[in-house]
User: What shape does this take?
Amino acid sequence: MNTYLILIIAAYFLVVIFGYWLDYLNLSHLKKYGPIIPPEFEGYIDQALLSKTQAYNIEHTKFDFISSIFNNVVFLIFIFIFLNIYNSWIVSLNLSFILSGLVFFLLLTYAETIISIPFNTIQSLQYI
Assistant: This one.
């Protein structure tokens, strides 16, 4: 395997794992100190609202974790399996350099939007 490819993949995994570790730290801090009302907010927030907010944040973080894993798997599958095929198809359209770049990224943006619809729908249902 190419040395640069290995470095890029290692950097990608380091960033992803670091993000998951930060989410874990936030969740453990929230579980430990979440039910405690800070002294600055004692007159402004009640225990019931704080408990609802804590429960929502925990569930939202867990859902984001699942969504992130799905997005990372789709991204890696695209990079390792479909990127060369997709790039060859864009090149075969015989467009100008700038137009090829625009089509390349526009179609990727549309695909990402379509793939993210189920997760966005579920998140918007949480607010109801």
